[in-house]
Amino acid sequence: MSKDTSPIKVTILDKEYLIGCEEEEKESLRQSVDYLNQQMAEIKSGGGVIGAERIAVMTALNITNELLAYKKENQDYTFKIDSTLKRLQSKINDALTRDKQLDMVDSDIPVSEPISQGG
């Protein structure tokens, strides 16, 4: 099923674009445009890059670098979490195994009848 899209007008580096966008994605698109404009303005104001196309390419490279750094950080974090979970699972399994062994040892001990007091 195709969702309804409607065009939304955005301005990127002083140039207007019409972009088809689903209603629930409009806020995300606006945030993306704001971020992109901010990054492009920083490169433009630096003065080292001239021309909209070059500014766009440099901005794309910077944003890609941020994304890749974030992905690596996320992978490292996920690996640490996975390692911690495996270590905890191992400790839980060891504790359950010891508990079962103790239960088995306890069940081998004969239980005597309580001694009655007088009678």
CATH class: Alpha Beta
Main β-sheet, spatial strand arrangement = 1-2
What is the string of helix and strand elements?
A: EEHH
- The CATH topology is Double Stranded RNA Binding Domain
Compute the CA-based radius of gyration.
Answer: 32 Å
Query: Average pLDDT across residues?
Result: 86
Indicate how many domains the architecture comprises.
Answer: 1
Level of helix content? Answer: 55-70%
Beta percentage is: 5-15%
Low-confidence stretches: none
The CATH homology group name: Cell division protein ZapA protomer, N-terminal domain
Largest sheet: number of strands, sense, barrel closure = 2 strands, antiparallel
Explain this structure to me?
This protein has a single domain (5-106), classed as Double Stranded RNA Binding Domain (2-Layer Sandwich). The protein is built from 2 helices and 2 strands, in the order ββαα. The longest helix is centred in the C-terminal third of the chain and has 57 residues, at 52-108. With 119 residues, it is of the alpha+beta class. Strands 1-2 form a two-stranded antiparallel ribbon.
Keywords:
single chain; 119 residues; alpha+beta; Double Stranded RNA Binding Domain; 2 helices; 2 strands; 66% helix; 13% strand
Helix-strand blueprint:
Layout: E1 5-12, E2 15-22, H1 26-46, H2 52-108
Antiparallel strand pairs: 1-2
Helix pairs in contact: 1-2
